[in-house]
Amino acid sequence: MSQEFNLNLLKELEQEIVLNVLCRDEMLRKLEEQRVSKLKIQLQQLWHKGTKNANYGSQKRSCARCQKSFGILIDRGAVCKGCSHLICSQCRITVNAFLWKCTVCYASEAIKVKTGEWFFEERAKKFPTEGRYETAGAKLLKSYQKLR
Predict the structure, then answer these.
(1) Is residue 111 within 8 Å of 39, Cβ to Cβ?
(2) DSSP letter assigned to residue 74
(3) What is the reported pTM?
(4) Torsional sign, CA 45, 51, 56, 59
(5) To which H or E segment does residue 99 belong?
(6) pLDDT category, 131, cuts 50, 70, 90?
(7) What's the average model confidence in pLDDT over 26-53?
(8) Closest Cα partner for 40 from 119, 121, 112, 120?
(9) Which are the contacts of 102, defined by CB distance < 8 A and separation ≥ 6?
(10) Can you tell me the distance from the alpha carbon of 124 to that of 112, in angstroms, rounded to the nearest whole number?
């Protein structure tokens, strides 16, 4: 499906219109990359904020997110099914009556939904590819720039 685009067939006005659309598309892609990057940085900060530091290494019965010590009978902690860490009741987000996730796993899933990453992960599972392909718009923009 890789075919070359011949821009000589288009009139100059049409070429300009196509070029404007492609430039706008490239700009929007860069803005989207920046937005996704910000979301991932926020997730990293949330994850690092909750990681156990050296002082808490000896305290095995503490929350993986806030480092709060667990009780013997009350708030003994539970294992998050997403990350397998022991989590206290304050660091859980209830998804439904029977399912909860820790704050980091919940934020990670939310980012996948906001960025559409879940779609590409599922598609990659069903249709594995070797590498990333160049879009038709990018090919067209390159061939147009060669003409100039």
Answers:
(1) yes
(2) S
(3) 0.62
(4) positive
(5) strand 99-102
(6) low
(7) 84
(8) 112
(9) 64, 65, 80, 82, 83, 85, 87, 91, 92, 93
(10) 14
Residue 42 CA to residue 36 CA, distance in Å, equals 10
At residue 134, φ and ψ (nearest 5 deg) are -80, 135
Q: At what angle do helices 12-50 and 103-115 cross, to 10 degrees?
A: 180
Distance CA 55, CA 115 (A): 36
Length of the chain: 148
Cβ(101)–Cβ(95) under 8 Å?
yes
Residue with tokens 């940085």: 41
Residue indicated by tokens 């480092």: 67
- Which structure tokens are listed for 3? 């075919």
